[in-house]
Amino acid sequence: MARTRQAAVAASGTWTDPDGVRMPDGEVHAWTPGTNQTLCGVQLSRARLNRFPHVPWKEVLPESGGAADQVRRVCPRCAAAMGHRSGERRWSRVSPRP
Ligand SMILES: [Zn+2]
C-alpha cells in the first residue's frame, strides 16, 4: 500500500474562518477525494463527516496545522495510515503566533 500520501480531510464538524473558508472542526480523519470513506474505513455518509477537499491532511495536525484551530481529535488510525510517527507525540502546539 504505497500510495502517494496525498489526502484531504473529513471532519465531524465545520466552521468558517474569517476569510469565508470552510474549516474542519471536532474529530478529523484523512480522506482521499473521490472516495466515500476515510483512510481508517469510516463511511463518510454513515458517520456524517464533512468533506474538506481544499484542506490538506497535514494542515490539521496540531504540530503543523494552519487548519487545526478547532480540531479536537485527530483519528490515530488515519494518522498512522498517513505515516505520522507514533513514537513522536508532540501534542503541544509549536505556534509561531504571538
Ligand atoms: Zn480515521
Distance between the amino and carboxyl termini:
41 Å
Q: What best-fitting shape do the alpha-carbon axes yield?
A: globular
Helix-strand pattern, N to C? EEHEEH
Low-confidence stretches: none
Bound molecules: zinc ion
How many helices? The count is 2
Tally of separate domains:
1
Report the strand count: 4
Q: Taking strands numbered 1, 2, ... along the chain, how are they ordered across the largest sheet?
A: 3-1-2-4
Rg calc: 13 Å
Classification by helices and strands: mainly beta
As a percent range, the share of helical residues equals 10-25%
Strand fraction equals 25-35%
* Largest sheet, strands/sense/barrel: 4 strands, mixed
Mean pLDDT: 85
What does this entry look like structurally?
The protein is mostly beta strands. The protein has one domain (8-81). The chain has 2 helices and 4 strands. The longest helix is centred in the last third of the chain and has 6 residues, at 76-81. It is globular and about 35 Å long. The N and C termini lie far apart (41 Å). Zinc ion binds at residues 29, 38, 40, 42, 75, 77-78.
